[in-house]
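sorry to bug you again but im stuck and you know this stuff better than me. what follows is a protein written twice so to speak, once as letters and once as structure tokens for the fold. mainly i need to know what kind of three dimensional shape the backbone takes. anything you notice is useful, everything is just below:
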Amino acid sequence: MTMISRSYKDRLKQFQIRLIEYLSKPTITKLWYSFIVLFFLSLILLPTIFVLIYVVFEFATIQSVILASSIYRTQILEALIYSISVSIIITLVDLVFGLPIAWILVRKEFRFKSILNSIIDLPLAVPTAGLG
């Protein structure tokens, strides 16, 4: 019984070694990396392309429903102005506070440097959409 299980383990180990050698070939690795890049690009690009195609081919419907009403037009204009003003203010705040903090983190050594660095990186780790 141990002879059978030992030969099975040996065959399994040989199979694993051959599989790893095959998957480690440069062509297989390049194909795998290409697949990963194409997959993630499709996650980003396909919804955008879908929306653009819909807007181009269904613009008459969009214009008649949304843009023809003066109420919607004023709301859209107000939202656009509000969005641009918020982005300008946030950019200025980031420049005023972000550059000095980045300079301090790179140039100086102090006690709570890792904590400050973690606090600064927190908005990148927790997306604003997840916070509500």
In short: The mean pLDDT is 85.
